[in-house]
Amino acid sequence: MSSPGTGVEVRLVDLCRRYGDVRALDNLSLEMAPGELVALLGPSGCGKTTALRSLAGLEEVDSGQVLVGGKDITHVSAHRRDMGMVFQAYSLFPNMTARENVAYGLRLRKAGSGERRRRAGELLDLVGLATHADRFPHQLSGGQQQRVALARALAIRPMVLLLDEPLSALDAKVRSQLRDEIRSVQREVGTTTLFVTHDQEEALAMADRVGVMSAGRLQQIAPPAELYERPRTAFVAEFVGLTNKLRGSVHGGKVSVLGTEVPVLDGSVESGDATVLVRPESVIVAPDPDGNGRVVEATYLGSLCRVQVQLDDGTTVLAQVGSAEIAELAPSTPVRVTVRPSPVLATA
Length: 348
What we know:
CATH class of the largest domain: Alpha Beta
Structural class: alpha+beta
Mean pLDDT: 92
């Protein structure tokens, strides 16, 4: 077993998994550095959960390799892979206290009662539930139950921690708080972690790197800021965050869109007419009686606002502006819409 504060390298190499005519995994390859937290993000059916289950040993792959710490464990049974798992359903034993639930894996591994109690106490303290050790699951909130599930997964000092939609059953406020706590605990313990979610905000907030999957393939994997600001494919640009599709013309490494010359990202078309994918925060909207559009709607969201504009050619554009600007952008206000010179993806 790994020791605290260490992680192992994980490599998934050309994994393939079919269900009839459906390719759940299509030559999927992924490398995770020791101690790294990687999130897999994508729509339902994209293969992200199949990838996690293949690493866990809960899913047989048709071909490819699973390597952990340099060892090939492709054909090792799940109970011998030394993985800690936390699912959407908390799966706590209802007749056991929080301490007993956390110590369960240690009991299976024949640890002594003193060691079990000490280790369970350490982990409950780590997840902020030391004072709840003797409570049963029905006496805990959903968020507290998920903390116990996390402590239980970590108690055995797993080689790899696997998180499968662990927060989706919780309400928004608890989910936000718990994702920060899980990230803090993971950093402290140092366990290499694979996190599967359909929630973009969770993935971007928690992960060292985020992988976006589609049809069993990894479209792009990168640190959150790079993934958002420098998407390599139209799928990634449209799936992660909000994106406007505008017409433009590419030439010489730049695209002309709404009267502005903007650099293009790698993966863009080299020349000619293109669809330009522009983030709302890169759209500039200013009142102008001789502008190129009119405000349709302005939505107040606290520290920022979203403004929907219809251009003279009928195109609808979404812009994100500071809340102080909304007073000048009432519906029907004529405006000038341009874009900031941030690099964009231009596709055919």
